[in-house]
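Input record (Table S2, row 295):
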Amino acid sequence: TMGREDMLREELGSIHGIPLYKSFVEGWPQVEAFQARPDDLLIATYPKSGTTWLSEILDMIYHDGDVEKCRRDAIFNRVPFLEMKIPEMPSGIELLEKTPSPRLVKTHLPVQLLPTSFRDKDCKVIYVARNPKDVVISYYYFYQMAKIHPDPGTLGEFLETFMAGKVAYGSWYEHVRGWWEKKQEKQLLYLFYEDMKKDPQREVQKILQFLGKEVTEGTLARILHHTSFQEMRKNPATNYETIPTVLMDHSLSPFLRKGISGDWKNHFTVAQNERFDQHYQEHMAGSDLHFQMEV
Ligand code: A3P
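Output record (adenosine-3'-5'-diphosphate complex):
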């Protein structure tokens, strides 16, 4: 069994060909056997796509906009991370077993790795996708601050690693496309980070409709205010500041870093952008899934 120090800057392992942290690989049998409940709501994303934002919105909806209730614990305890397993911490599975229904469940798994129980129980799923240029920049900073990741190297090197699908959770292209194809089959709401930035009220209303819930105008306004980037950034229950520094070093980059669309423009060189566009076109060819690279 791994200790915490074995995990720091460790190379990735893999599950069914998808690169993943070795400590998560150790916990995989429990994840595969996970028993979902019919009223579980799954929040599925590729990393750095707005998972924490959507999680806070949903916890607020589930608590009818009660800000104090949503401060009861850190977001990673209120919305357990299904496949998470880190030495000396309760695993996602252990947290979920203790969580009363109706549960919110976070996962970054690609659709083909989702435990079968979610399908058997016909659970609702909300997926949020973000354009890959902002994802890769956000991921680059996250690799630096979250020590569970291997050293990302230079941005130029990390862009190649990302395009090759050799980052944790594998290819962004396969992830967004895989979940998009699933949209036809099931109870799945597919959202975009860029739409949430542009018109958060409209997107929250979509979520409410999908859940069959209604809230008053005042509650809606409270949800929107409380889940804004500025509010979430200073809220210890959403900004991950309670994670030990040895695991996440916010002095290298805060978890809620910039919260905008188009930050890639401050990082990509012209040549990197051309190469990325070319690669994007090749890997998204034939899909009716489209991304806004800025808003
Ligand atoms: P940046 O690094 O671009 O700032 P995840 O929760 O999936 O790990 O995604 C993290 C990204 O979402 C970070 O992006 C973070 O700042 C952004 N984010 C978190 N909360 C947000 C909010 N309320 N509004 C906008 N962006 C938010």
